[in-house]
């Protein structure tokens, strides 16, 4: 068997089955077995093989399960939503263990957080699906669980996942109580008209106060306290009640097996061997291997090569039926073919397409360039594939004088941008330069010529280098967000002054109980995007939480500020600032750059300028060789001559010297230190 064939089989889990057979025959533990049955040439596949084995060890039962025995009324589709770190992934682990989807071992921790970046950062960034088999009242149920991220930057993942569900488990930490993302996630589920089951987690903690949390839930969400379930996901306390509540309270999906086949693509990723793997929610009918299906988006026909359940690893089955959630591989080789939000139907039975998802609104834009222009094609394909898995990123071609051809990418927030960058490096081995992030400003043009050129009076500016001059603009607009802050009452003073310093306007303030306050502020997005959350956390000793939603645009007095290194403008560091902030921002950026740029053999002048007027300056001193070291005593004029020669040399170097700006300086220059 050839190497590529083995690899292919591993990926399609066929080899997994062959090896499983051998494991059973020789009665050996699956893990070690993999090394024994391999021939030396196959050893190269070990990483892939071991992951196949891991998946085998995590899904012992229900091989070849007949999904037709789960009619729609025996199916429940639900999401787990919560604020960051309230225990979604831990509860998902318990549910997987209790239903036998994974083995109960120490190693099986946060199994749904599969990405390296998720494990390293300890956060979920990607929603993950797992199908569970559960018996209740002597009836077998198929439960499809979707674990979602908690951070505001990934809320698009949450809203998409909700479209495949009829209910949610809203997890709330028994110690921290309701937090900003709890409120935001509650409203997402509420607007989608889903059944909400409040689950109070971490009751094992010493400071847990489930009573208080129940009162908060009653007050803020108007859900009676009797509906709350108290659990400890870590210890498994009362988790069985959660499963029962899922079956009893969440309605089964609508749709019938007799309807024409209709499925919504709610997520997808790219596999090197099989092409696009789409996660689907089947709204009606059934689909099987070999069926000819059509993508409503492109009107292209495909043949189904593989389909199955996610448990949480792929688990191929023969068919998928109405109400079920699973994956499908249909020979889509191009990333553009798998649009998230697309509808799939049978070739002979066209159906009305699902309206799809509202496109994610990018909040932060940054330039992304290859380290070396020769890496451009590889980076382009990496970005295309990663954006398939993360459809909330917008991509536009861009180029810069200094960095060559690249892209301008739009993200939902700074963490989203950092995670995307990290995934590019870890999953695609791509090394990139990311420029200073900016928010999408708008300019209302007054020049008829420009209006004609752009085809509209309003111009959105995602690249500060293209900021139009005041002379051709009647007004500038900046994006606003409505921020929600939840914090202990004792910290409100400090939080209010932080918000004021960010040009925020208070809209509302209510007590959610006798200790915690919920405040609403209207912020200019630019003021919160880089470092606001970190500062809020640090000045509230980690107790405040923050979430925001889009609040349109407002007129603002904006100007473009250039950063010059030795008199040369660095286009990638150009920023758009509010006029009142220009001096303080310019000064802070120069100071930050002074800290981030390493000293070189020549002096570097770091300047911030508006037009031709320099508003701030810092100097990075040159390394200096002691040219007088060998001059023992002697005439002063000789010393002066040596020093002058050195100074002339430095001047020349400074003129021709190229200042290298370190990669991370582009973001760090924008972070402000709060006094
Ligand atoms: N004491 C205690 N700790 C818990 C419990 N449930 C979760 N934790 C801990 O809380 C931390 C966060 O848990 P996660 O499951 O990663 O939380 P999450 O909500 O999935 O986090 P994000 O995906 O980042 O939003 C981990 O250190 C868990 O061990 C619990 O019932 N009791």
From TrEMBL:
<comment type="similarity">
    <text>Belongs to the GTP-binding elongation factor family. LepA subfamily.</text>
</comment>
<keyword id="KW-0547">Nucleotide-binding</keyword>
<dbReference type="InterPro" id="IPR035654">
    <property type="entry name" value="LepA_IV"/>
</dbReference>
<keyword id="KW-0648">Protein biosynthesis</keyword>
<dbReference type="Pfam" id="PF06421">
    <property type="entry name" value="LepA_C"/>
</dbReference>
<keyword id="KW-0999">Mitochondrion inner membrane</keyword>
<dbReference type="InterPro" id="IPR000795">
    <property type="entry name" value="T_Tr_GTP-bd_dom"/>
</dbReference>
<feature type="binding site">
    <location>
        <begin position="147"/>
        <end position="151"/>
    </location>
    <ligand>
        <name>GTP</name>
    </ligand>
</feature>
<dbReference type="Pfam" id="PF03144">
    <property type="entry name" value="GTP_EFTU_D2"/>
</dbReference>
<keyword id="KW-0472">Membrane</keyword>
<dbReference type="InterPro" id="IPR013842">
    <property type="entry name" value="LepA_CTD"/>
</dbReference>
<keyword id="KW-0342">GTP-binding</keyword>
<feature type="binding site">
    <location>
        <begin position="201"/>
        <end position="204"/>
    </location>
    <ligand>
        <name>GTP</name>
    </ligand>
</feature>
<protein>
    <submittedName>
        <fullName>Translation factor guf1 mitochondrial</fullName>
    </submittedName>
</protein>
<keyword id="KW-0378">Hydrolase</keyword>
<feature type="domain" description="Tr-type G">
    <location>
        <begin position="73"/>
        <end position="254"/>
    </location>
</feature>
<dbReference type="InterPro" id="IPR000640">
    <property type="entry name" value="EFG_V-like"/>
</dbReference>
<dbReference type="InterPro" id="IPR031157">
    <property type="entry name" value="G_TR_CS"/>
</dbReference>
<dbReference type="InterPro" id="IPR027417">
    <property type="entry name" value="P-loop_NTPase"/>
</dbReference>
<dbReference type="InterPro" id="IPR005225">
    <property type="entry name" value="Small_GTP-bd"/>
</dbReference>
<comment type="similarity">
    <text>Belongs to the TRAFAC class translation factor GTPase superfamily. Classic translation factor GTPase family. LepA subfamily.</text>
</comment>
<dbReference type="Pfam" id="PF00679">
    <property type="entry name" value="EFG_C"/>
</dbReference>
<feature type="binding site">
    <location>
        <begin position="82"/>
        <end position="89"/>
    </location>
    <ligand>
        <name>GTP</name>
    </ligand>
</feature>
<comment type="function">
    <text>Promotes mitochondrial protein synthesis. May act as a fidelity factor of the translation reaction, by catalyzing a one-codon backward translocation of tRNAs on improperly translocated ribosomes. Binds to mitochondrial ribosomes in a GTP-dependent manner.</text>
</comment>
<dbReference type="InterPro" id="IPR004161">
    <property type="entry name" value="EFTu-like_2"/>
</dbReference>
<keyword id="KW-0496">Mitochondrion</keyword>
<dbReference type="Pfam" id="PF00009">
    <property type="entry name" value="GTP_EFTU"/>
</dbReference>
<dbReference type="InterPro" id="IPR006297">
    <property type="entry name" value="EF-4"/>
</dbReference>
<dbReference type="InterPro" id="IPR038363">
    <property type="entry name" value="LepA_C_sf"/>
</dbReference>
<dbReference type="InterPro" id="IPR035647">
    <property type="entry name" value="EFG_III/V"/>
</dbReference>
<dbReference type="InterPro" id="IPR009000">
    <property type="entry name" value="Transl_B-barrel_sf"/>
</dbReference>
């Amino acid at each position: 068997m050839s190497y590529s064939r083995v690899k292919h089989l591993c990926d399609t889990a066929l080899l997994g089955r062959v090896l499983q057979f051998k494991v059973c025959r020789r009665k050996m533990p699956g893990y070690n077995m993999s090394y024994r049955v391999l021939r030396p040439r196959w050893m190269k596949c070990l990483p892939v093989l071991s992951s196949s084995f891991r998946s085998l060890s995590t899904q012992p039962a229900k091989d070849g399960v007949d999904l037709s025995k789960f009619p729609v009324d025996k199916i429940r589709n639900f999401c787990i939503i919560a604020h960051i770190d309230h225990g979604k992934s831990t509860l998902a682990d318990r549910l997987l263990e209790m239903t036998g989807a994974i083995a109960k071992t120490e190693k099986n921790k946060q199994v749904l957080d599969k990405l390296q970046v998720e494990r390293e950062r300890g956060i979920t960034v990607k929603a993950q699906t797992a199908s569970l088999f559960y018996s209740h009242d002597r009836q077998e149920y198929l439960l499809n669980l979707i674990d979602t991220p908690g951070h505001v930057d990934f809320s698009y993942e949450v809203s998409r996942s909700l479209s495949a569900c009829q209910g949610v488990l809203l997890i709330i930490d028994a110690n921290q109580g309701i937090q900003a993302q709890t409120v935001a996630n509650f409203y997402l589920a509420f607007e989608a008209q889903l059944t909400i089951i409040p689950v109070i987690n971490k009751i094992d903690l010493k400071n847990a106060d489930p009573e208080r949390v129940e009162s908060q839930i009653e007050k803020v969400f108007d859900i009676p306290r009797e509906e709350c379930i108290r659990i400890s996901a870590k210890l498994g306390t009362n988790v069985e009640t959660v499963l029962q509540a899922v079956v009893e309270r969440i309605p089964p999906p609508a749709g019938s097996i007799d309807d024409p086949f209709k499925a919504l693509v709610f997520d997808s990723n790219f596999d090197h061997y099989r092409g696009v793997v789409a996660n689907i929610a089947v709204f009606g009918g059934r689909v099987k291997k070999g069926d000819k299906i059509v993508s409503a988006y492109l009107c292209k026909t495909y043949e189904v090569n593989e389909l199955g359940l996610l448990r949480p690893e792929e688990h191929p089955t023969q068919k998928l039926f109405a109400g079920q959630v699973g994956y499908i591989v249909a020979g889509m080789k191009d990333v553009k073919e798998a649009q998230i939000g697309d509808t799939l139907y049978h070739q002979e039975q066209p159906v009305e397409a699902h309206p799809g998802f509202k496109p994610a609104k990018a909040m932060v834009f940054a330039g992304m360039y290859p380290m070396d222009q020769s890496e451009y094609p590889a980076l382009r394909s990496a970005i295309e594939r990663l954006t398939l898995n993360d459809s909330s990123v917008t991509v536009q071609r861009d180029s810069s004088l200094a960095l060559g051809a690249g892209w301008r990418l739009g993200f939902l927030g700074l963490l989203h941008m950092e995670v995307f960058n990290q995934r590019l490096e870890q999953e695609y081995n791509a090394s990139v330069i990311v420029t200073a992030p900016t928010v999408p400003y708008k300019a209302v043009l007054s020049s008829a010529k420009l209006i004609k050129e752009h085809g509209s009076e309003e111009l959105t500016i995602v690249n500060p280098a293209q900021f139009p001059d005041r002379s051709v603009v009647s007004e500038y607009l900046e994006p606003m967000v409505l921020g929600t802050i939840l914090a202990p009452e004792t910290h409100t003073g400090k939080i209010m002054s932080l918000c004021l310093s960010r040009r925020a306007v208070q809209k509302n303030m209510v007590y959610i109980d006798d200790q915690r306050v919920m405040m609403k502020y209207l912020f200019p997005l630019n003021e919160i995007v880089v470092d606001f959350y970190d500062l809020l956390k640090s000045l509230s000793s980690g107790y405040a939480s923050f979430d925001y939603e889009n609040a349109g645009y407002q007129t603002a007095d904006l100007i473009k500020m250039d950063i010059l290194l030795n008199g040369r403008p660095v286009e990638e560091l150009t920023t758009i600032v509010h006029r009142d902030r220009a001096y303080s921002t310019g000064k802070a950026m120069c100071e930050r750059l002074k800290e981030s740029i390493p000293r070189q053999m020549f002096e570097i002048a770091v300047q911030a300028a508006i037009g031709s007027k320099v508003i701030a300056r810092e100097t990075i001193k040159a390394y200096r060789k002691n040219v007088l070291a060998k001059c023992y005593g002697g005439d002063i004029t000789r010393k002066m001559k040596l020093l002058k020669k050195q100074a002339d040399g430095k001047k020349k170097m400074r003129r021709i010297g190229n200042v290298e700006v370190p990669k991370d300086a582009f973001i760090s220059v924008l972070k402000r230190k709060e006094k």
